[in-house]
Amino acid sequence: MKKTGIFYGSSTGTCEDLANQIADKMGVAASDVYSADKLSADLVKEYDLLILGTSTWGDGELQDDWYDGIKVLKSSDLSFKSIALFGCGDSESYCDTFCDGMGILYEDLKDSGCSFIGNKVGTDGYSFSSSIAVVNGAFVGLALDEVNESDKTAERIDNWTAELKKHI
Question: Which segments within the chain are labelled E, that is strand?
Fold first, then answer.
């Protein structure tokens, strides 16, 4: 199994909680789960699989902890790394920017040479009008809505982590 690190950007604790739920399902130790503001070149080198999560803020913006973290990732050699993305958003109040933070991470990393896994999550069962996290009709990672659809979170995490495990 690939050595896995999970990095999340969370302002209210929601994305952090989701990161820990994903870690539990993936068998990733708590010591391998970090806030994105702790991301460093040395940590990037340490892991084969990076699971990156973010909430979306404002008018579809990346969560603040990621601003330096994305710079670290973009300056790192990701050519032999696998990356999986997850994001949380509010599909009712922000239906036109749902999980855009995850889409920003994808856009920033898509030409980095990494391999994305878990990046073809169907949009069926989601209610939103627009998201830059949707490419070719599917989410680029796991989209979660703890505000309106928390009853679907466990099943979505179970299905997504099962898919990730097929690739590691």
Answer: 4-9, 33-35, 49-57, 61-62, 82-88, 115-116, 121-122, 134-135, 138-139, 142-144
Residue with tokens 């990037």: 44
DSSP 8-state assignment for residue 30:
G
Handedness of CA 69, 120, 151, 20 (dihedral sign): negative
CA gap 14, 146 in Å, rounded: 8
Q: In whole angstroms, give the CA distance from residue 29 to residue 100.
A: 28
Name the residue with tokens 């080198």: 45
Distance of CA 144 to the CA centre of its chain: 10
Is the pLDDT at 163 greater than 80? The verdict is yes
pLDDT at 164: 96
Read off the pTM.
Answer: 0.96
Chain length of the chain: 168
- pLDDT at residue 1 greater than cutoff 80: no
